[in-house]
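Incident review: delayed structure delivery

Summary: a single-chain prediction request sat in the queue longer than the usual turnaround. Root cause was a stuck worker, restarted by the on-call engineer. No data loss occurred. The affected request and its eventual output are reproduced below so the record is complete for anyone auditing the incident later.

Affected input:
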Amino acid sequence: MLKLVIYAAMNRIYSSRDIRKACKRAITKNQARLYTKLTSFVAECEELYGIRTVYHDQISIHTLKRLKKQLCRAKVQEGIVFVHGIGRRKTQLQKSLERITSEYGTMLRMNRSIQAEGSFADVKEDMNFRRYLYRGKANALVESILLAMGRNINKLHCKIQTGRTGSHLFSLKTA
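Output delivered after worker restart:
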């Protein structure tokens, strides 16, 4: 009964007649899907592991329990190990930490500066940029974009001159 109430609350159904209709429709649809999956799973287990189960059109709970025992025995005999444990997945923090500490991640960090001030200092020094010539936020933005485009073209020119057009990242230096 509790399952029905929870199912109805999840689907925002509050009338008893609507609950009855929804459960009848959903349960019969899902049961049919479950039975087709179960029969195909049992047939696959019979084929792969040589497990014989006798059933006609229906699968009983007793048959499934017997199948589970035989599959557990097969798991132990073949030495099958489940990697991630019982339903635990890596958190977003763990995934990002692994990405950052990997060799490719350290290579990316070495090649890409996080600080924008360093590249602005390069632009200011190398391109003889002293001050913004026009006033206003929009004019300063346009001038900054033009400087950035000029710097990128200059970097590409230097890369072509030194013959490094195919390489995108510098390799890591080892001590």
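Verification: Residues 92-162 form one domain.
Action items: add queue-age alerting; document worker restart procedure.
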